[in-house]
Design the sequence.
């Protein structure tokens, strides 16, 4: 699924696209600390009960299974710009994640994004552009590390850089299947981009 195995975060910097290397070296993405898990990815949606919990769990699982040596230095979390704290994940997402991906979301509890979460994040990936806008409005300095998932790693205004629709409340299973397919594709693409 993921490309070359990197020996360390420093190795990633060497392999990184030159246009991104400067940002990485300035520690906007990678914060070099003495702690073993020093790279914090925060996945953001609206309510933190459907899209971001699934993407968070799938990204974490894929990262662990990838064999990448830096995986132990990465922490993946999620939050919502309009979340009510301590809500459980949507039932449809929980069931699908368990059956399709062997991911357990029953312990997930939603949380609203705060300035502290934003400041502690190395990289923030959002489902929609309005999530980026909300985060940057709250912490302007976060602009350099906050991206829509579909825009992250893309150097132009590609047609693929679009909002990932929220299936919450839909009675059409296809809306959920479409979301799951996009999430799986984007998880793989994000990891491939980070190590290329």
Sequence:
């Amino acid at each position: 699924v993921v490309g070359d195995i990197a020996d360390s975060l420093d190795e990633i910097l060497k392999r990184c696209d030159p246009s991104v290397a400067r940002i990485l070296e300035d520690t906007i993405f990678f914060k070099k600390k003495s702690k073993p898990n020093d790279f914090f990815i925060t996945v953001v949606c609206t309510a933190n009960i459907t899209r971001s919990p699934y993407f968070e769990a799938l990204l974490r699982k894929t990262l662990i299974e990838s064999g990448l040596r830096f995986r132990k230095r990465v922490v993946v979390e999620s939050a919502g710009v309009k979340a009510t704290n301590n809500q459980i994940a949507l039932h449809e997402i929980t069931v699908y994640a368990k059956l399709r991906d062997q991911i357990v979301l029953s312990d997930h509890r939603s949380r609203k994004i705060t300035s502290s979460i934003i400041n502690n994040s190395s990289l923030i990936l959002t489902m929609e552009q309005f999530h980026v806008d909300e985060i940057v409005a709250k912490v302007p300095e976060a602009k350099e590390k906050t991206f829509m998932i579909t825009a992250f790693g893309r150097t132009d205004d590609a047609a693929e850089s679009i909002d990932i629709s929220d299936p919450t409340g839909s009675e059409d299973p296809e809306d959920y299947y479409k979301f799951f397919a996009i999430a799986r594709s984007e998880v793989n693409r994000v990891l491939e981009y980070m190590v290329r």
Summary: The two ends are 12 Å apart (CA to CA). The beta strands are 39-45, 74-80, 123-126, 146-148. Residues 54 and 180 are 8 Å apart (CA to CA). The chain is about 40% helix and 10% strand.
